[in-house]
Amino acid sequence: MITDHIEYHDGETVLEGYLAYQETNTQQPLVLVAHDWSGRRQHACDAAERIADMGYIGFALDMYGKGVFGTDGDIEVNSALMNPLAEDRLVLRQRVRAALVAGRNIPQVDATRVAAMGYCFGGMCVLELARSGADVLGVVSIHGILAASEVANEAIKAKILCLHGHDDPMVPPQQVLAFETEMTTANADWQLHAYGGTMHAFTNPAANNPDFGTLYSEVAQKRSYQALENFLQEIF
User: Fold this and answer.
1) What Cα–Cα distance (Å) separates residue 138 from each residue in 19, 121, 131?
2) Among 62, 67, 180, 225, which one is most buried in terms of CB atoms within 10 A?
3) What is the pLDDT of residues 123-175, one digit of tens each?
């Protein structure tokens, strides 16, 4: 496996993504990986490498800026990083679309076959990429925030897969229903898998705060990654 750090820009903001792929003589599909609220740390980089193991190119994008990271469990710091983007979806869309442009410019990438996936806050990011009308084949939200904003959507071109913990207090049933209604009204190709007895951040082994609503689940993690693999095979 070949890995590298790729510097790119959103306007004057310097960003740094993490690239992972298997050496090959042909261009491969690209999967953008959007990180959780703590930034492009090991969990996102591991996900990019998991994508590379599937035979695709994984690119863990950067929503915060080169060298800007939160930490596991620090609610105040992570919230301060995430909230400005979560509260301004136009800026958020621009930031994630900058990663799409950077990813498509990687020489090993087949620019016609691109998808995006994201964890928690990153799930919101890739859903906003779809809502922006981006020309990608699919997006996958993994225990992501499903709530829409007041920003108008463009025609959704991407197929959408949401992998959701039913007991996630950050995404209550009414938010799930509103999302399903939104996607149906938009005539999107969408699906949502809900895992019973499962909280937020279920793919992250470091998640161990049930009082806050975050708890790792090995069973849900395995099921979600199988669903992810099936989805990517379908769209690519």
Assistant:
1) 19, 17, 12
2) 62
3) 999 999 999 999 999 999 999 999 999 999 999 999 999 999 999 999 999 99
- Residue 25 is classified by DSSP as S
**Residue 135, both tokens:** 């020309």
Q: Can you give the residue range of the structural domain that contains 44?
A: 2-235
What mean pLDDT do residues 47-65 have? 98
Give the Cα separation of 128 and 182 in Å (integer). Answer: 13
Q: Chain-centre distance of CA 191, in angstroms?
A: 16
Q: Cβ atoms within 10 A of the Cβ of 62, count? A: 30
Q: Which two tokens stand for residue 145?
A: 């925030």
- Total number of domains constituting the chain: 1
- CATH, residue 7: 3.40.50.1820
CA dihedral 17, 22, 27, 32 (to 10 degrees): -30
Q: Are 21 and 57 in contact (CB under 8 A)?
A: yes
Alpha-carbon gap, residue 67 to 233, rounded angstroms: 33
Q: CB burial class (10 A; 0-12, 13-18, 19+) of residue 88?
A: middle
Tokens standing for 27? 């261009």
pTM (2 decimals)?
0.96
